[in-house]
Amino acid sequence: MWIPTEHEKYGVVLASFRGTVQHGLPLEIGDTVQLLEKCEGWYRGFVHKNPNAKGIFPCTYIHLKNAHIKNKGQFETVIPTEDSVITEMTSTLRDWGAMWKRLYVKNDGDLFHRLWHVMNEILDLRRQVLVGHLTNDRMKDVKQHITARLDWGNEQLSLDLVPRREFSMVDPDEISVTELFKLMEHRHRKKETPVPASTHHLFVHMKSLMSSNLGEELEVFFHIYDGRENRPLSERFFVRLNKNGVPKSPEKTERQCTLFVDLGSSDLRKDVYIVVHIMRIGRMGAGEKKNLCSIQYRRPFGCAVVSIADLLTADSKDDHLLKVYACTTESEWYQIHENIIRKVNSRYNLSGSNTGLAVSLQLLHGDIEQLRREYMVLFTRGVSITKKLGFSDIIMPGEMRNDLYMTLEKGEFEKGGKSVARNVEITVYVLDIEGQVMKSYVAAGSGEPGGDVYHSFVLYHNNSPRWAEQIKLPIPVDMFRGSHVRFEFRHCSTKDKGEKKLFGYSFVHLMQEDGRTLPDGTHELIIHKCEENANLQDSSCYLKLPFSKANLPGNNQAVKGTKECFWITSFLCSTKLTQNGDMLDLLKWRAHPERINDSLLKLKEIDGSEIVKFLQDTLDTLFGILDESSQRYGLKVFDCLVHIINLLQDSKFHHFKPVMDTYIESHFAGALSYRDLIKVLKWYVDRIIDAEHQDHIQQVLNATEYIFKYIIQSRRLFALATGGQSEEEFRCCVHELFMSIRFFLSQENKITSPITQTQAVFLRTFPAVYGELLKIFTVREVAGFVRDTLGSLPATARAECPLEAVKLHCIAKTVESQLYTNTESRCILLPVVLRLLQAHMQEQRDLVMCARILTSMLSLVRKYDSTATEPVVSEEVDLIVDSLLVVLMRTILEITNRPQAAGTNMRLQFQDITGEFVACLLALLRQMSDKHYQQLLQAFTSKDDLRDFLLQIFTVFRILIRPEMFLKDWTVMRLVTNNVIITTVLYLSDALRKNFLNDKFDYKVWDSYFYLSVIFINQPCLQLESFSPSKKKRVLEKYGDMRVMMGCEIFSMWQNLGEHKLNFIPAMIGPFLEVTLVPQPDLRNVMIPIFHDMMDWEQRRSGNFKQVEAKLIDKLDGLMSEGKGDETYRELFNSILLKKIERETWRESGVSLIATVTRLMERLLDYRDCVKLGEVDGKKIGCTVSLLNFYKTELNKEEMYIRYIHKLYELHLKAQNYTEASYTLLLYDELLEWSERPLREFLNYPMQSEWQRKEYLHLTIVQNFDRGKCWENGIILCRELADQYESYYDYRNLSKMRMMEASLYDKIMDQQRLEPEFFRVGFYGKKFPFFLRNKEFVCRGHDYERLEAFQQRMLNEFPHAIAMQHVNQPDQTIYQAEAQYLQIYAVSPIPESQDVLQRDGVPDNIKSFYKVNHIWRFRYDRPFHKGTKDKENEFKSLWVERTSLTLVQSLPGISRWFEVEKRELVEVSPLENAIEVIENKNLQLRTLIAQCQSRQMQNINPLTMCLNGVIDAAVNGGLARYQEAFFVKDYIVNHPEDGEKIGRLRELMFEQAHILEYGLAVHEKFVPQDMRPLHKKLVDQFHVMKSSLGIQEFPAYVRASPVHFTNGSPRSSCRNSVPNIISPDGARVVARRSPLTYPAVNRYSSSSLSSQASNEVSNITGQSESSDEVFNMQPSPSTSSLSSNHSASPNVTSSAPSSTRGSPQLQDKHKHSRENSCLSSRERPVSAIYPNPLDPAQRATPHQIGDTTLPRSDPNLSAPDKVRPTFSSWSLDSVKEVNNTQFSDTVGKLLCPPVPPRPPYPGSSAKTIRSQSPVPTSRSPQKSSLPPFTPSPTECQSAGLVSNSPVLSGSYSSGISSMSRCSVSEASGTEATTGDHPAHQGPTMPNSVSSGSDELIRRENKTPPPYSVYERTNPRRPVPLPHSLSIPPSVDPPALPPKPHQQRTSSMKLVPASDPRRADGVPHVPRPRPLPRKVSQL
After folding, report:
1. Interhelix angle 1069-1076/1089-1102, nearest 10 degrees
2. N vs C: which end of the chain shows fewer Cβ within 10 Å?
3. pLDDT tens digits, residue range 989-1038?
4. For the whole model, what pTM was predicted?
């Protein structure tokens, strides 16, 4: 049975548990669990990181821990009862763990490893704390270390700053806000600005001496030297080196490492040096030969110097190699370091080029204890301490030091009967009072232990040696008296024996008889001569002798006159000994009472360090004198006491204040002193007003604190001794003293008056007296003293008066004092404090101090639980609120609005006080209860005052919410702030409702309220979703979700507004929308209904809610692009509002608005997701296009539309899609006109005229078209710009533009362009973004990109997508799947510009552009077998399923892909398929033969292979299979409707045979010798093939073909050969087309599943060529194999030379139709359209196909769409006459197999041609009812005149009228003949609704933006005609010189001006109607 746990509440998982049992809860090691129930070895509970999942787990897996339970019961909270530092460590390490792994993923290796080390360190420290074996001090250090590491990690990971007090986290609810702020600030300052250390230390590690001439032991001495004062600053550090130059004792680090301690900041300057002296121990001469002499001498070796300033710039611990210098002469050794510093090069030189001293030097900062903690290893390993000469800048009490430093300066010696000077060595001994040598008290320096004796170094042959050698004598204080130092002088012989002969000695006493030590300074000592065997052991025999010449009696001239003498310099550094006689006199005052007066006077002249050394003794002396002779010496003793007290104010002796405090508490015994002290102090105070000089009085007042301490302690001692006698007398004296003080304080004086300064001095020291008074007086009495004293100050406040600042400082000290913490005294002092504070804050003076006071005051006001103190606290809060709340808010407003000062310090200062004032305001508001708010609001007498207050407080709250108010990591402070704000707002909202609604409505207050609420909710620090789970949990437990609370309050207030809501529509839509975008479901549910309310009220006001819609749409874009909102919000917005408006009368319009906004959200979310992913191509571009279209077509938001145009443009540039970038920028270009209208600055455009901006856009677009190799489009824009320049006579730019245009033409002809492949992509499944979901697109591939590469790219863009392996349309399960499916296959483009592709002589470079540009339609063929498959001959049942895809826009456009708008599926019969295959093969053969004959082919192999593949068709059986399939009797009987098609197939087979025959002839001419056998084989097989086809002889029309090709241009030969068929205007009339010119579009094979060749054509115009041009092949529009794969045609266009025919240009008044030919068919006038695929209404039904005798390559297309003549050299020179005018006969006979061309003969050329009229086809239902007609030769001639114009389509051989398409030319704006040709009128009306008009109807339902240069003039699409491509207005431009192409044959022109059919000679070209502009001033 499960039993609730009582004590087992909290545990830690010891091992991972999988939770595989029923109801098992998976656990991970280290998880913390809360236990709910227990049962037989199992627990039930949950893991803290996921409290919602509850389950069971074994007890053995859990380690139980003690825990504290809050809110016991269902919602209990369990907190482990452990050290708060441990708790924090645990939670922090958990948070870090997750972030640490993310660092690895981000590849932030540095922080990853550093954090790992710190985490391990914290874990180790955590173990130490948990074990609990640490001492208190060690525990404190460990916790400090832990918190430092935690703070470091939090800072590195950008986590929150944790407020702590004594290492424990602080609960913000348990302390005042001002205290919290101070803690946060303290931790921040500690982190940011370390206090610069005032004490510094130099670490020196001696490594080695490198020199070539070693071999002797060395002594190295380091010391710090002041180059400015030429004196050493420290004692010496001494290291012994062995003969190899390394330290002698390497294991003893203290012998080679030292710390030069106590360097002041003033010592770290450039002229302070580290000086190193090196001595060698050996023979006298360094180069002397080794002899038997064992005596060794200390001899100079070298010196090195380095500046301390160099160490400040060096790395923390660098090794230095110091150069070692030697003296040029030994006598200069004493000053070698000075010479090196001064660079006196003549006196020293390098001791050796490779001599160097290797040392490690490092500057350390901070006090020595701090160093011991930070550099623990240094001190544990061992380091010697090298002290400073003298005391440090700050003398610490208790510091014990007694060091006497002696410097052996110089000596003067006589020769002593020698011929040469002596080699003098000094031996130093220290002897005690008994004359015994003191052991170990002579030290050469730190580093080595002291010795009994010291030997100086020896200077060779020098009777005036100068040593300057310092030694240290650390003699204990008690051994100083009677001690002396003896110096013995010896001559060191250099002879073999090497003797040291004693010849004299000197001595000096260390202490004088009166107790003074040897004075500091230089002493000239007497050298007493002696012999070698002199007995100096008995010191008594020489101590009576004089030792110094200064001490000699005047009559001893003999000694004075001696030349030999010795100089030393002594320096004492002692805390116990003095050299000052006055000090000794004072201390021994009882021995000499007569000297007391002088001693007291001289005390002020004694050095402070001497006084503090004997502080206690001095004080005892003073109070002893006072007790014994108060009347006589009272005033002087008082002055001496004041002097000592003020001495301790000096920073150098500041640390001796505790010594004095200790003295007062423990040693002071002057029980009667208080009377004299009070009396003297009052005497001084009473003299203040009359005294002329206030300096001394000010010194007295400055010492007030300690004077009172002595007074109070004295009184306490007296009371203790006497049982409290004279209490009243004492009180009376103190009252009188304070009366005197109040009197002098109340004096008003001039600002510069000395009395004012004296008042200021007293006020500075006064607060220090409170604590002393409290020792005797009650709290209320002391508070009374303080109140009266502060109240006596002059009330008049002058800003410039220094007293005001001091007064405030005194108040601050008062508030911070112990006195103020008491509740009783606080009630007395608070009014005075508030009065002064209010005055200063109102005048904005001394704000820093005001903030400090206020902070201290409010830190004491806490929420007390006990009811006893509650009224007191409440009363205090009342007082503070009444006095300071409004002033405080005004101060915050003024500080935050004040312009920041330039100086950083000022700025920081203001920032600091802003934070302090804010903390004070928050603390005050947090203390306010209901009662306080009621009193506050009732205190406002008028509505205006209340209004001002509310506006002010709302403004202040908005300031508090600003991100810059607190530092980024102060989340704790921000949460407290928000909690206070929301509490206050809830109180104030009642006042808002009661006082400012209905007739008293005040918009400004309400607006301020709503604005505050909105920015409150949107604060980053309240967005819990961005927090870690643990942080989110903590915030929710403490504060709840404050956003929801504020949201509910907003909703409640909004509901109260009633009709006043209209005032906030539409202003509040944006802010409220921003609130609803916060990802908090409850908040959204509360706030979204407000939009319904707004719609309802707006509908009532204006009958619609356009304003609401406009504002919503405007704001959504900006907010969502900032990352706000999500898919859940979109669904919630939709569902909530739709539900709300269900019963509204305006439901329909509401649904429309909601749908619009929802669709916009979908697109914006997709756009944002794409931008977040950082993709460039594909999704991001597609998404931007979708959004751009939406803004244009559905929302008509022009500015947003233009912004997204530029975003898309930037994306294209980044992806190097230059063509798409150009099309994109054209969208903006088309919105502008060539006008001088000024445009404002916008995006990156400057302020400029519309003309200038459009010119700039044109140039940019041309540049991008150039980079994208889309030069044809660039040419059109160049022309437009050129026209503009020409109209302005700007010939300079015109010239440049013409040159640019010419360069583009050159690039077309000279540079290669790759033909891209096109791919159809289907995106299926709900996981795709909205703009792709369940849609299909056609994408233009990149250069060289094939299907596999494209498919891989798409899968990379959509890594979760599944590639579908079939091409069938998916079913609904795929559409609705929660997945992503991609269906990709290649498709073939169907070009629109057939006229260019089918013209002869047009180079492939030009054709290649039209094959793959401006493509709307694409095709995909899938072969299949219908019925039973004939194994013998599969062609019988081989059908083709042909899919045609029509796009919403042509490619290329503003995107690399566009959506498929229409999908058509048609099946092509086996017979039609066969016709297509043979047509394609014939086209390929013709192309190869032409290329071979014109020698374009470098290799004949392609022709060989193609001929071999057709003649010897081993794979599929060749033509024989078609014969077997379709020419058998059974098929003809069963398919009578296919008669014409069978005829057509036979005709194509004959044609192929004829081509093969001619191809073999060409092949024979060019075939290489080694391939002759193959050629012979092909010829033989061809004859077999002919016979199999039953061809004995070609038909007459085939035989008539010439058997040779002419070499000239087809164009020129055509001109010369058939003049009789040229119309008067020069237009050629083509009667029929050659069988070899069948449309190139038929070349696609039925079996092609891969990408088809992208050079299909679908619009052909016939042209007659002369007979001599037959077989003169130019490259045809395409080449194809039977399979027609893309690989069969070359991907790179050849750069064949261009023909002499240029592009058509503008005529004088209008443009040539060639310019229209550059446009896609959808943009041409209706009658000018090349036949397009028909709509379903026009699609031929099966029986209609039967009616039509023309086979088609594309069953989707009507006859005129597919059967068109190709510009080829294959054409006819004559045709049979057609006499039968019946419709069916005409169709049948026109579709019979054509004959090859033969030379024209009389009577058959023009006449015959004219007799053939294009007859309307019956394939289209609209056309089938037309009566047949037979046009006259005139009509036919007129048709021929325009047959090559782009306005015509169709073919004369097809039997379909081309004229029917021109008949509506008047209405459609095309150039056509006028109405004098009645035969044209018949088909006018029916054709107006034929394929073109159906297309128009279909297109007019949509208004997508224009995406193509070639779409810009299409009147069929309701798109504004762009000015850049429109026909200019009727004003004629300046005449241009005729262009070369205008002089060519009219087959390239529109109807010329000289056309007799026009009376005015000008063709009728209707101008485009100008459309109304909606362009904003952009």
Report:
1. 160
2. N
3. 988 988 888 888 889 999 999 999 999 999 988 999 888 888 888 888 88
4. 0.62
